[in-house]
Write a structure and sequence with these properties.
The protein is 52% helix and 6% strand. The protein is built from 16 helices and 5 strands. It has a 5-stranded parallel β-sheet with strand order 2-3-1-4-5, with helices on both faces.
């Protein structure tokens, strides 16, 4: 595989514009980026012991219940025959089959949770490249409050944002800017021509006009139609959602986010109120109860607006069945928190 054919993985934190970046990349004639079933997120805790048949079976079961169905059937026997004896080997074989069906030269993955698996990916595919997509954590938390994906409580979302940015920063420091490229959401939407050109230079591709008109493609329309949480996927690139936390978070919630994330925000160019550093840590019970109440409201709204609502419930049930007995119960709650 040449460096120009290696996969492109978007890493960071959900609700950071990853659907936008996915669709921009997918609009390129050489790149195919399906919506991710989050294979590594959901299956990496299961002790498969190199059993390719079992890993393939579980991955394809997850794909069957994916909340954003793929347009191409995946051949199980072909995946089993092509996959290296690891979970990412199976994932890579599945994505590669999708790439071939799309007639593309390389595939991409927008599962931001892959920030936890950078070294695993590079051990198997040294030519892989990572786009570290970062967004103001206050806007991330405000978006998550309204979405069926992610933690509904801003404090918990801030903890996730901090941890994942620290992982991405560490990957950049270990691997260097030739392997990990930082993309600020705010820069991407404010200067798309410049930022997309920089991304293409990083991944070794020529800029194509379709990348700046991603919203006109069929994939964008399909994504926007499935869930209210993705409705902006069908919109042109806009700066309208920069600073959305000003309406989406209370002052207390903003301070809670900043109290967690401030030291990571600063080097990434996100100013914060120093007074937030004195914000007390919220009680665990209060966070849990408030998060649960907001989640109920979000789920009720989703029932009336989302075409894939029941698919998401089936997906989450599938993940719990697959992981039952393989990992501690505490990690199973992750199944309901991902895109």
């Amino acid at each position: 595989m040449s460096p120009q054919d290696g996969p492109i993985l978007i890493i960071g934190t959900e609700r950071s514009g990853s659907n936008l970046l996915r669709l921009v990349l997918d609009a390129h004639s050489r790149i195919a980026v399906p919506h991710p079933p989050h294979f590594m997120r959901y299956l990496s805790g299961i002790p498969y012991d190199g059993d390719v048949e079992a890993m393939t079976g579980d991955a394809l079961r997850l794909l069957r219940h994916h909340i954003h169905p793929w347009p191409h059937a995946i051949d199980r026997a072909a995946v089993t025959a092509a996959a290296r004896p690891s979970l990412f080997g199976v994932v890579s074989a599945i994505y590669d089959q999708y790439r071939v069906a799309e007639g593309a030269a390389r595939w991409g993955c927008k599962s931001t949770f892959m920030v936890e698996h950078v070294d695993t990916v590079l051990a198997e595919i040294p030519d892989a490249r990572f786009l570290w997509l970062v967004r103001d954590p206050r806007d991330v938390a405000a978006s998550a409050k309204r979405a069926v994906f992610g933690h509904c409580h801003p404090y918990r979302m801030a903890l996730r944002w901090k941890a994942e940015q620290e992982l991405a920063r560490a990957a950049l420091e270990r691997r260097g800017p030739e392997v990990v490229h930082l993309v600020r959401y705010e820069d991407l939407v404010s200067s798309p021509d410049r930022e997309i050109a920089a991304i293409c230079d990083f991944i070794g591709e020529a800029v194509e006009p379709a990348m700046l008109a991603h919203h006109l493609g069929g994939n964008a329309r399909v994504t926007a139609s499935l869930s209210a949480s993705w409705r902006t996927a069908g919109d042109p690139i806009t700066t309208a959602r920069i600073g959305s936390h000003q309406q989406g978070l209370s002052d207390r919630e903003r301070r809670q986010v900043e109290s967690v994330a401030a030291r990571v925000m600063e080097p990434l160019g996100y100013p914060f109120d120093p007074a937030s550093l004195d914000e007390p840590v919220p009680g665990a019970l209060g966070v849990a109860l408030r998060g649960f109440a907001v989640r109920l409201a979000v789920e009720a709204r989703s029932l009336g607006t989302d075409r894939n609502h029941f698919r998401r419930w089936r997906r989450d049930a599938t993940v719990r069945r697959l992981r039952r007995g393989a990992t501690p119960v505490s990690v199973l709650v992750q199944a309901g928190e991902s895109r």
